[in-house]
Amino acid sequence: MPLVDAVQGHNLTQDSAYEPHWGLRLRPFENVPDPKFYVPSAKHEAAIERILYGIHARKGIVMLTGEIGSGKTLLSRAVILKLPRSRYEIGLISNPTIPGNEFLGEILFQLGLDPQGTRVEQLRRLNDQLLANYHREVDTVVVVDEAQAIEHDRLFEELRLLSNFQLNDRFLITLVLLGQPELRERIAHIPQLAQRVAIQHHIEYLDRAETKAYILARLAAAGGELSIFSPSALSSIYHRTGGVCRLINSLCDLCLYFGRVLGVRRIRRSLVEKVATEMLHRRDNSGTWVMS
Questions:
Q1: Domains of the chain, each with CATH number or no CATH
Q2: What ranges in 153-291 are assigned the alpha helix state H?
Q3: Is 264 helix (H, G, I), strand (E, B) or coil?
Q4: What's this model's pTM, rounded to 2 decimal places?
Q5: For 178-211, what is each residue's pLDDT tens digit?
Q6: Beta-strand relationship, 139-144 and 88-93
Q7: HSE-up of 205 (CA within 13 Å, CB side)?
Q8: How far apart are CA 132 and CA 57, in angstroms?
């Protein structure tokens, strides 16, 4: 029976709450950057280590890239949690598609400063804040998520100019750029910026063992039993998602939902395959499964 038919006659508002059925306190596979669901795989821990080194050592510009759905945003939130507020002032730009004339103002706003005024006034205000933080022994960090979405190269020039805020022996601000692989290509075509990227790291997708550990860790964080998914189901999830964190979350969430609707007590390979077949499709010219 198709899964769509399986939900006929159910109250979707009530039945979508599958947590009690599986003994969960929370939904473990939401695609939101909730740090309590950060899973310290070797790949992600290596990325965090490099980013933190760049921040602690005040390297000026640090860049992290990864394929779509590889967990960059969640990783950045995990990094932020490791930076004590007594030592760091942090600005987070989560939507870098801001018009060029508003970009600097958004950075000021995220740092708690007045974003108004001319560009000269904005830069002077930022400089005063960076120096005040320096004298308070506080480091300033600006994280730009989805940086590949920056529309115009002149905004990359704006970021480069921020790295000019420095003393003789140290940078006054650290920029952390997160983005998809094309971010590397765009920056490579701006030599004056590329030369200032002191640390860059690329996250690969999870392998089979890491995918299993990822699923079990998120279930544990949600208060669930680790046996909800059978070993063959875990293997099937890896095969169907290719180790892409976002797709793992989507597929596992759907399996828990339809498992609840169907009244099963354990997710097995057959259900994973059915959900994947009916709810996923292959991307053209790629073996990666994406949501349809």
A1: 3-32+207-291 (no CATH), 42-203 (3.40.50.300)
A2: 153-162, 182-188, 191-194, 208-221, 231-241, 245-262, 269-279
A3: coil
A4: 0.86
A5: 999 999 999 999 999 999 999 999 999 999 999 9
A6: parallel
A7: 16
A8: 19
